[in-house]
Amino acid sequence: MKKILFPILGLFFVLCSCDGVQNSTTAPINDTLHIEQYFHKFRARFPDGFDNDVKKEKMNEQFAKEIVDSLNNSNWLLEDLPIRCEGIKSWKPGTCRIHFQSWIKPYNLYFKDNVLNDVCFDIVAEVPESFVDKVKDKQYYLINGRFKRFILHSEFEQYSNGMAYTNQIGLSKEYTDEYNINLGEMLFEIDSIKPYK
C-alpha cells in the first residue's frame, strides 16, 4: 500500500507546486471589456474583411457608421477601458481642457484570446477646474461621459498641448492575426473620472 501511496502523494505535490508557479507568473486576462465584446461581434459579421483592400475599405466604412451610432447611444462602450491622462491645461476661468489616450495600456491588461491587440484613440474634453486635483499625468483612469463627436486634428490642438496618436477610424491589422480598433480623435463630455486600479 505504501508503494502506491507515496508515488501518488509525490505526484500530487508536484502538480500542486506547478499550478502555484503558473498562477504566480500568469498575467490576468480581462475578457469583460465592452469594447472587446463589440469588436468580436462586429468581426463575426465581416470574417473576410481583411482579405483585400476593397473589402477592408467597405468593412471600415460600415464600422465608422456603426461606431458613431454606438457611441452616441451608449455611455458604457468605453467606460470600463482604462485610459491614460496625457495632460490637462487651463482654459476659461473655472474650466480646464483634458486629454486622455488609450494607446499605451496599463501593465497586465490583456484582451481575450489575444486577437485584439489594441484600442487606439484620443479623447479631449472641457472639464471643471476641480478635475485638476483629481488627475495626474501618465496615470490611468476610467471615465464616464458622453461622446459628442469626432474632431479634426486642428481642433484637437485647441484642447491639448500633447500629441494625438490616432487619426483614423476603423479596424487595422497589427500582425498576422492581431487587430487594432482605431477610434480617432474624439470630443467627450465627461461627468466623472475615477482612478484605475
Helix and strand arrangement:
Layout: H1 2-25, H2 34-45, H3 53-73, E1 83-90, E2 95-101, E3 116-128, E4 140-150, H4 153-159, E5 169-173, E6 179-195
Parallel strand pairs: 3-6
Antiparallel strand pairs: 1-2, 1-4, 2-3, 4-6, 5-6
Note down, in words, how this protein is organized:
By secondary structure, the protein is α+β, with helices and mostly antiparallel strands. It is built from four helices and six strands, in the order H-H-H-E-E-E-E-H-E-E. The protein has a five-stranded mixed barrel. A hairpin with a 4-residue loop joins strand 1 and strand 2. The longest helix is centred in the N-terminal third of the chain and has 24 residues, at 2-25. The chain is globular, with a radius of gyration of 22 Å.
